[in-house]
Write a structure and sequence with these properties.
With 675 residues, the chain is an alpha/beta fold. The protein contains 14 helices and 33 strands. Helix 2 runs antiparallel to helix 14.
Length: 675
C-alpha cells in the first residue's frame, strides 16, 4: 500500500468521525448512550464508504510447492496390439504412474496419441494413424518455458506428420520406451507406388514402385501388378542384407476407359510374419482421347499427307480430308485443320464459328491473307506477293503445355509470303520466325485462347520437310509425331470453366483424411462467398445416406468425411441456391497403414533420445529409468512465493457491511421513535 493511500485512509477516519459527531453530538441536548451508539454506527458507515471510494489494494503472500511435470505419452495406435505389445505397454504405464517416489517428486500428466495428442489415462489402441510430430507440437504449446522430462511408450513407426526426431524441444529430455520386438524378421514390403493420376486410352503409362527387404540372407522376390485378377506386369527382384531396397519401373497398358484399379504385390517362396505390407492398390483414370479431325484444303500439297500420318500415329485420332465445297455436318468433328485457306473456305469459317469448333490454321504461299484477316481478329497479316523462307526459333518460356525442343532450329525453313504478322489478344508463341539468322517480330507457330475457343496457327508450308528431318536425326518419326499430337491434344481439350468445381480422390485408405473441397463461381467467374453447398453421400453396399454442409474457407468450401467405414460411395454436391450439381464416386480401401511394420523403429527413437539428451529404454529397463528420474537433481520441486493483489472494490463483504450498518442505524432510530 503506497503512502498516498495511507494518508487518505487516515483522513477518512477523521472525516467520518467529524461527520458522525456533527450529526449526532454537536448540538445534541442529551448525549445519551443511544446517541453515542448511533454516532458510532454512522461513523462506521461513512468510514466504510470512504474506504470503498479510496479502493486500496490489499497484498497477500502465500507459499506453495511446485513440482516438475512428468509427461507420460502412450502410443494408442493399432500398431501396438499388432506388434503384440499392448499388454506390456499397459503394465509399464501402470508401473510409472503408481510409483510413490515418482509422484512425490513430479506432477504426472498422462497423454495418448495417434493422429493427435490428447489427455488420457485409458487406452484402447484403436488409432488409425501415428503422428509423433503432433506430440512434439502439443507439448511445446502446453508446457511453454518449462523444463520437464517426457516418457513416450511407442514403436516409433510414424505414418503421418513431419519427421519427429527434430520436432521436440532439445531443452527437455525425451525417454522413449520401445514397444515391440526389435529382432529383425524376414519381411518384404512395398513402401510406395507412384503413378500418374490420368492416362490416355491405348497408350502406356509409367509406374514406379519402391520396395524393401528385411532379413539376413539373399533372396529372390517376384513383383507383380494385377488388374481384374490378371497379371499385367511381372518382374523379379534380388535382395541381400546389404542391398535391401529396389526401385521398379514399369510401363502399363491403358486398355480400358474410366477408373482402373490396379494391385501391386511382392512375394517370395519364404514364409513371412507380416503379409499386410506386401500389397498396395492404386488407381489410374484412363481418358478417351478419341478425336475426329477434318483436314480441309482447296489445293494438293505434301504437307497434307505428312500431317495426316503424324496425327494418326496416335490410334485415337482419325483424319478425314475434304475439299472446302463438299464437307457436310462440320459439327461431327472435334478439330478443323484449314490448310492454306482462301475465299472458298468462307462457309467453313461461318459454320465453324457457329459450332464453336477449335481450329488449326496453316498458311503458305497460296493463302488468301486478305480473306483470312476478315475471318479472324487474332492475327493481323500484312503480306506481299513475294515469298520468303522462315526458320524456327524455340521459345523455352512457352507454358501452355509441356514440350521439348526436338531440334526446331535445325529444321529446314518454312515458306510463306513475305510481310509482317502482328499478334493480338491472348496469344502464346511457341516458335518465332527467323530470316537468314535474324529474329523477326512475327510468330511461326502460335496458339490463341479466346474464351472457350482455341486456335493454333502454323505460318508456313513445307512442314513435311520437318518430319523428314526429324526421321533423319532420330531414325524415327516419333518425336515429330509427338509434337503434332501435343498440338492436337491442346486443341481437343475443353477449356470451358464450370460454375461448380469439386476436387476429390477416387481412392482413400482407411485412416486417411477424407477431404472433399469445392469452388462455386458466379456468372462473372468470381468465387462466390455466399454459396450454400451440401453433400449427400451414399454407401453403395448398405444404401445408407449421409448429408453434410461444406464449410467455407479462404477460397474454397470443404467437408471432412473422416470416420466413415471402408466401402464404395457415390456422392452429389449441390449448390442450394442455383441447384447446380456435381456427382462423383470414391472408394475407401480397407487398408490399415499401422499394420505395415514388423519391427519398431529403434534407430529413429534412439536418434530422438540423443537429440534431446535423453536415453532410450526397453520395457524391461523401466526400473532403471524410474530410478534415474527420482535421483535427477535438475527436477527437484521448487517452493514459490505467491503474491496476490486484490482491490477492495472487489470485496463483496464490504458492501454487505455498509448495508448492515445503514440498516441497523435505521432500525434503531425507528425503534426509538427518532424517525
Amino acid at each position: 500500500m503506497d503512502t498516498i493511500t495511507k494518508v487518505l485512509l487516515i483522513l477518512s477516519v477523521f472525516i467520518a468521525g467529524g461527520l458522525a459527531f456533527f450529526q449526532y453530538l454537536y448540538k445534541a441536548k442529551n448525549k445519551s448512550k443511544l446517541n453515542l451508539f448511533l454516532a458510532f454506527l454512522r461513523f462506521l458507515s461513512f468510514l466504510a464508504i470512504f474506504v470503498l471510494l479510496i479502493n486500496p489494494t490489499i497484498t497477500t503472500n502465500s507459499f506453495e510447492i511446485e513440482k516438475t511435470p512428468l509427461v507420460v505419452v502412450m502410443d494408442n495406435s493399432t500398431s501396438i496390439p499388432f506388434l503384440k505389445s499392448n499388454v506390456e505397454a499397459r503394465k509399464v504405464y501402470q508401473k510409472i504412474v503408481s510409483n510413490t517416489a515418482l509422484k512425490e517428486k513430479f506432477t504426472i500428466q498422462s497423454y495418448q496419441f495417434s493422429k493427435d495428442l490428447q489427455l488420457s489415462k485409458r487406452f484402447n489402441f484403436k488409432g488409425k494413424q501415428t503422428n509423433l510430430d503432433a506430440v512434439a507440437i502439443g507439448l511445446k504449446q502446453t508446457y511453454r518455458n518449462k523444463n520437464f522430462p517426457t516418457i513416450i511408450l511407442t514403436d516409433g513407426n510414424q505414418t503421418t506428420g513431419a519427421d519427429y526426431v527434430y520436432s521436440f524441444d532439445t531443452a527437455n529430455k525425451v525417454y522413449p520406451i520401445v514397444l515391440g520386438d526389435t529382432s529383425k524378421v524376414f519381411d518384404l514390403k512395398i513402401n510406395q507406388i507412384n503413378a500418374n493420376k490420368y492416362a490416355f486410352y491405348k497408350n502406356k503409362f509409367p509406374v514406379e514402385a519402391f520396395v524393401s527387404y528385411s532379413g539376413d540372407q539373399k533372396i529372390e522376390a517376384n513383383f507383380k501388378i494385377y488388374q481384374n485378377k490378371a497379371v499385367i506386369a511381372n518382374q523379379n527382384v534380388s535382395f541381400s542384407p546389404s542391398n535391401n531396397t529396389a526401385v521398379i519401373q514399369l510401363l502399363l497398358p491403358a486398355n480400358a476407359i474410366g477408373l482402373q484399379l490396379f494391385q501391386a504385390t511382392i512375394s517370395s517362396s519364404k514364409k513371412e510374419k507380416n503379409y499386410f505390407n506386401n500389397t498396395k492398390k492404386f488407381v489410374v483414370e484412363v481418358m478417351n482421347q478419341k478425336t475426329d479431325i477434318a483436314l480441309i484444303s482447296a489445293i494438293n500439297h505434301p504437307d497434307i499427307g505428312a500431317l495426316k500420318r503424324a496425327i494418326e500415329s496416335n490410334s485415337q485420332r482419325k483424319v478425314v480430308i475434304f475439299k472446302p465445297n463438299i464437307i457436310n455436318e462440320l459439327n461431327k468433328y472435334n478439330i478443323i485443320v484449314l490448310y492454306q485457306p482462301s475465299s472458298s473456305c468462307k462457309s467453313v469459317f461461318d459454320e465453324m464459328k457457329l459450332a464453336g469448333i477449335n481450329s488449326f490454321i496453316i498458311t503458305g504461299t497460296s493463302t488468301d491473307f486478305g480473306f483470312l484477316n476478315q475471318q479472324q481478329n487474332e492475327l493481323q497479316f500484312k503480306m506481299g506477293s513475294q515469298s520468303e523462307d522462315y526458320f524456327a526459333g524455340f521459345n523455352s518460356q512457352f507454358n501452355l503445355f509441356a514440350l521439348d525442343n526436338i531440334g526446331f532450329e535445325s529444321f529446314p525453313p518454312l515458306q510463306n509470303s513475305f510481310g509482317t504478322i502482328t499478334t493480338k489478344g491472348n496469344t502464346s508463341v511457341l516458335l518465332s520466325s527467323k530470316i537468314k539468322g535474324i529474329t523477326t517480330q512475327s510468330p511461326l507457330l502460335a496458339f490463341v485462347e479466346n474464351q472457350e475457343k482455341r486456335t493454333a496457327y502454323l505460318l508456313g508450308e513445307n512442314s513435311w520437310k520437318w518430319r523428314a528431318k526429324s526421321f533423319v536425326d532420330n531414325h524415327s518419326f516419333e518425336k515429330y509425331d509427338v509434337f503434332i499430337d501435343k498440338i492436337i491434344q491442346f486443341l481437343a481439350s475443353n477449356s470451358s470453366k464450370k460454375s461448380l468445381e469439386v476436387e476429390h480422390e477416387q481412392f482413400y485408405n482407411s485412416g486417411d483424411n477424407i477431404v472433399i473441397s469445392a469452388q462455386y463461381f458466379n456468372k462473372n467467374q468470381e468465387f462466390d462467398e455466399k454459396a450454400r453447398l451440401n453433400i449427400s453421400v451414399l454407401n453403395i453396399q448398405t444404401k445408407a445416406v449421409m448429408n453434410y454442409d461444406l464449410l467455407k474457407g479462404s477460397n474454397s468450401y470443404k467437408v471432412n468425411l473422416d470416420g466413415i467405414p471402408a466401402g464404395k460411395y457415390k456422392f452429389t454436391v449441390t449448390e442450394l441456391n442455383s441447384k447446380e450439381k456435381y456427382s462423383g464416386y470414391f472408394e475407401i480401401l480397407n487398408f490399415d497403414v499401422e499394420k505395415q511394420f514388423t519391427n519398431p523403429d529403434f534407430e529413429k527413437l534412439n536418434q530422438l533420445a540423443n537429440q534431446t539428451q535423453g536415453k532410450l529404454y526397453m520395457p524391461a529397463q523401466i526400473d532403471t529409468l524410474l530410478h534415474q528420474l527420482i535421483e535427477e537433481e535438475s527436477y527437484k520441486p521448487v517452493q514459490k512465493n505467491v503474491m496476490v493483489r486484490t482491490s477492495l472494490i472487489d470485496w463483496f463483504w464490504l458492501l454487505v457491511i455498509i448495508s448492515f450498518l445503514l440498516a441497523s442505524e435505521w432500525f434503531v432510530r425507528k425503534y426509538n421513535g427518532l424517525l
